[in-house]
Amino acid sequence: MAIALDRPDRLNALTFDVYADLRDLFADLREREDVGAVTLTGSGRGFCSGGDVDEIIRPLLDADAQRRLEFTRMTGAVIENMRRCPQPVIAAVNGVAAGAGAVLALAADFRLLVPTATFRFLFTQVGLSGGDMGAAYLLPRVVGLARATEILMLGDPVGAQRALEIGLANGIVDASALQDEAAALADRIASGPRRAYAATKQMLTDEQDMDLARAIEHEALAQAQLMDTDDHREFHAAFSERRPPRWSGR
């Protein structure tokens, strides 16, 4: 599945409706066995510039506390649903990823960047907490606490090369090849052992808050279940017959 944020004249700034659509789409993916991987990108010259100043920030200044809380919970649900959907998500970051746009890319399982891409976790620069939509949970686990503290507190731009050096990017790709590279990775995942990939994503998400004993037990239960799948049996058959496996995702 390919998702493109499509407001290029606003650098794909998010609206209330777009947040709700993303929340619902990623929630629905939990039941979509026909989808093996997801790519997320932006139209035009940017990935996503965050929440639209005119359509979100301005109205929320006049909203009551309950309405603001409903909004912040909705934005957080987008990220939680991204992490909970079984399909790996590939962010093809084709330009600036700022504010909520940076967190969307952060929540993906893979991040491919063009050389001119830039992350801007600029929440403190608008007078808000750097911990928004799960950023303070996810970013230290990707780049470490010290770097996450610097990035979230100061809000300075993180360019593509720096992102690659600190683990915030999986690769830098020429702009002309970005979408093809993202699609190729998605095809590789979708044509592979999907249940194994989904379980790996779940382990990586769940075990961040577990001690070692719980994590080992969590993995033991998952592996025991996966040993009874068609794909695991197919591996053994392919190995015995000296041929590549034909994965079914079951």
TrEMBL record:
CDD domains in the record: crotonase-like
UniProt-listed Pfam families: ECH_1
Family matches, as InterPro entries: ClpP/crotonase-like_dom_sf, Enoyl-CoA_hyd/isom_CS, Enoyl-CoA_hydra/iso, Enoyl-CoA_hydra_C
Molecular-function GO terms, alphabetical: catalytic activity
Gene3D superfamilies reported in the protein's UniProt record: 2-enoyl-CoA Hydratase, Chain A, domain 1, Lyase 2-enoyl-coa Hydratase, Chain A, domain 2
Family to which the UniProt record says this protein belongs: Belongs to the enoyl-CoA hydratase/isomerase family.
The name this protein goes by in its record: Enoyl-CoA hydratase family protein
Organism name: Candidatus Aeolococcus gillhamiae
